[in-house]
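This section describes the prediction task in plain terms. A model, or a person checking by hand, is given the sequence of a single protein chain and must write out its three-dimensional structure as a string of tokens. No templates, partner chains or ligands are provided. The sample shown here is typical of the held-out split.
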Amino acid sequence: MPNNATAQTNSIMHPRYGCTVGAAYTVAAIPGAIPIVHCGPGCVDKQFFILSGCNGYQGSGYAGGGATPSSNIGENEVVFGGANKLDKLINSGVKIMNGSLYVVLSGCSSALVGDDAESVVRKYRSDGKPVVYVDAPGFKGSNLVGHELTVRAIIDRHVGAYSGRKRKGLINLWAEVPYFNTNWRGDTIELKRILEGAGFSVNVLFGPEAGGVEEWENIPKAQANVLISPWVGLDIVKHLADKYRQPWLHVPVIPIGEEATTKFIRDIVAFTGIDSKKSEMFIKKEASQYYYFLEHFADFFSEYWFGLPSSFAVVGDSAYNAAISKFVADQVGLIPAKHIITDNPPKKYRESIRKIYMELSEDVSADVDFIEDGYLIEKKIRETHFGAGVPLIFGTSWERDIAKELGAILLEISTPVMEEIVINRTYIGYKGALTLLENIYTNTVNGF
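The expected answer:
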């Protein structure tokens, strides 16, 4: 393919997200929930590779990877319809897969031929089966769009109406998209630890700390919703405000480090009105430990300053891009050189995202580009001036070639991550910030 092929065809080189039906992994991240996909052969398998297999090798779990029930519709179903095949798949899936909730997601092929998959699902619902339908053809958008569609479908069609009391101090946590955000499991664990330490009860909804489908059924009982994301999830919390009269707090930047995390805790405590005594005790303990380690790290920083990077670029999804950019500029003191957001946020959210980069630190601001195509990203990085020091790039596996070309240090922080195994790593909060510093400067030392 010639270098200018991308510009000529409007194709995307080096994809950094899945398609709408990739929301099967939103379902797989809920303990006890089973995704059932109605699409062509290989569709959901490709989602596994981009969101898990080539993204920290996160694994598949009980209902992901090769265990995901799929109709694998082919020529016969395209001609004659695939509703009967879906019916048989749901019937066998409910019997074989041990789940508390089954979510049927229809892909491109079934949508294009006009399969009435919803009516098939409705039959099982009328029989009392916990089955939910999501119209998720890939042409609707990325797996981030699919994530929001799937969450809303579960809330509306399974959780349903609620008019009872709210539990003071119970919050619903909406943060990173499961599997898509490489560190989502470790980050969720750290966020829950922080919020519980501050005195809250938390519905985390996804991952190892989640309480499964029953926890989803407790969503309406929460006092409030907390969204930690620049844009993904805004439609969800707005919908919950209308449906369950729940207020919501939008935290557009994931907190990394003591200052950001302490502010994060105090903002939520003030928003919900719970007693601040427990949260202030927690903050004092965490901050003391954080600065203990930072003080000892300072010896290295002061000794090797002459060989350390002084400027950095970030290439990745908007959630981690904003968080890393703010922490590294504000707390580490490096100079922002280039910021490229790759997850294609809707245009209505882009101005608010740009404002984040106008306040990275005191008197420090930066421009941000919204680019999906790998060829254009490489071109931008190649044109970036990093000063006299070694360039530091926070990016993806797709940036390995350009990092080698520039002699840069690369730390993979966004989809896809093919050079690292990620089990329960976190870069956020008090503890995660220290791990982030370790990885930045371990890579730096290895580059000497």
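For orientation: The radius of gyration is 22 Å.
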